[in-house]
Design goal:
Elements: H1 2-6, H2 15-45, H3 58-86, H4 88-94, H5 96-108, H6 112-140, H7 146-170, H8 175-180, H9 182-191, H10 198-203, H11 207-217, H12 226-245, H13 258-276, H14 279-284, H15 286-292, H16 299-320, H17 326-350, H18 362-376, H19 382-389, H20 395-447
Pfam families: Sugar_tr
InterPro entries: MFS_dom, MFS_ERD6/Tret1-like, MFS_sugar_transport-like, MFS_trans_sf, MFS_Trehalose_Transporter, Sugar_transporter_CS
Organism: Drosophila arizonae
């Protein structure tokens, strides 16, 4: 019973950590809404009945998808420069402005360039948020629940994707921005009540502010309990030791130590597996995939079902990540996605030569399996594992570099995915995704370390 209480997110001592996690994830939820908005909207704006004054073709669609990656790249670089200089809270506040602007542009769009910039800003918000939010959560959360709280980043994104699917499917084009603009206002306002993280304040030698922050996130309104006081003293000592060891400025030599290089290798494979498995592309172009698969079920209904499956998948990872660990979930996820994509590719391939109309439900079932398994590990735990891979001294810089690399991959995969579907067909596209997932599985099986319970201060 004591161990179950330790892992409970509703434990009285950690409930403010949960509250803070929910508040900062308003922006990741909003980013998900922006991502999910695209798929059903593409179906609308490609027809003569488009709610806009213009139509889009395959070239514009590929750019609409890939602008997310370019925005994410700029967001990564911006936050990487500001994270240690200005603090976690400043970077968190910063995200509200670009996110509000993207919905204004969507509402006012008079040509496709408005939508390009809107998608760019959606990417900026996501790229910046994917960097600062996991680091913020990892610094306020107890190690016993850190994995569960950090995995809520992708749970929030996927919940937002589902809401984006639903809103853009059933509401008029110009209604969605009116509803979505509420999110950045609520996000900015709620964050006013959260203090800066204790580790960052200690690094800035702001001892009193750090102690106040620590008490807040430990739900100690008066003086600290003995256990919490000991934990704070341990945190302060660990940071003092770390700073004593790191008195020399960070240099390139710190990035080429053996532990650093092993972490970079794992992060590169993790990022490539995340993107080349196709899961993120599937989410952005889900309606197009169901059209290409030959499914006669309503594509928008299928897309919404997949949105629900994403949430169930990430929630599964949230439950088990601090119990069975990161590595096992990653192995199950990558192997499952590989097998699912192989079968999906075979189904669509044989569907060209045989009448498989009586199996029109198969693409939906296969995509449910692929998306669920992708979200219990490869997607749901991506940022959990990424943050925990690197040594403490280089964590902020290395995580920033890794997310920049991820953003380049996002741009490339979202730009190429609709072109692959158009010129090579869905079967070859799925088999490519399967091969990527299978190679990722092999690497993880051989080299991925388990990071459950790893200290965020000490290596």
């Amino acid at each position: 019973m004591t161990k179950l209480r330790q892992y409970s997110l509703l434990n009285a001592r950690t409930r403010y950590q949960l509250l803070a996690t929910i508040i900062v994830n308003i922006i990741t939820f909003g980013h998900g809404v922006g991502v999910g908005w695209l798929s059903p909207t593409l179906s609308k704006i490609q027809t003569p009945d488009t709610p806009l004054d213009f139509q889009v073709g395959i070239a514009e669609i590929s750019w609409l998808g890939s602008m997310l990656g370019l925005g994410s790249l700029l967001g990564n670089l911006t936050i990487a420069l500001l994270l240690e200089r200005m603090g976690r809270k400043f970077c968190i506040y910063l995200l509200a402005g670009p996110y509000a602007c993207l919905w204004i542009l969507i509402y006012c769009a008079s040509n496709v360039y408005y939508l390009y910039v809107a998608r760019f800003l959606c990417g900026f918000t996501g790229g910046a948020g994917y960097l600062v939010v996991p680091i913020y959560i990892s610094e306020v959360a107890d190690s016993s629940i850190r994995g569960s709280l950090t995995s809520m980043v992708m749970l929030s994104v996927n919940l937002g994707v589902l809401v984006g699917y639903i809103l853009s499917t059933y509401l008029a084009y110009h209604i969605v921005p009116f509803l979505a603009i509420i999110l950045p206002i609520a996000y900015f306002t709620a964050n006013l009540f959260l203090p800066e993280t204790a580790p960052y304040l200690l690094r800035r030698s702001q001892l009193n502010a750090a102690e106040t922050s620590f008490r807040y996130y430990q739900n100690q309104k008066g003086g600290m309990e003995q256990v919490s006081k000991a934990s704070f003293d341990e945190l302060r000592l660990a940071i003092d030791v770390q700073q004593a060891q790191n008195q020399t400025a960070l240099t390139y030599r710190d990035l080429i130590t053996k532990p650093a290089l092993k972490a970079f290798a794992a992060s590169i494979v993790l990022s490539m597996g995340y993107q080349f498995s196709g899961i993120f592309s599937f989410i952005n172009y889900m309606s197009t995939i169901f059209d290409a698969s030959g499914s006669i079920l309503d594509v928008n209904i299928c897309t919404i079902i997949i949105g629900v499956v994403q949430i169930v998948g990430v929630y599964t990872s949230t439950i088990f990540v601090d119990i069975i660990g990161r590595r096992i979930l990653m192995l199950i996820s990558t192997l499952g996605v590989a097998l699912g994509c192989i079968v999906f590719g075979c189904f669509t391939y044989f569907g060209q030569f045989y009448d498989l109309d009586y199996l029109n439900w198969v693409p939906l079932v296969l995509m449910i399996i692929i998306i669920y398994l992708g979200n219990i590990g490869l997607i749901g735990l991506f940022f959990v594992v990424l943050v925990e891979l690197f040594p403490a001294k280089i964590r902020s810089l290395a995580t920033s570099m890794s997310v920049v690399f991820l953003s380049v991959l996002v741009f490339g995969t979202l730009k190429l995915f609709p072109l692959l579907l158009h010129y090579f067909g869905i079967s070859i596209t799925m088999w490519f995704s399967a091969a990527s997932s299978l190679l990722t599985f092999v690497y993880f099986l051989l080299f991925l370390p388990e990071t459950k319970g790893k200290s965020m201060i000490q290596d």
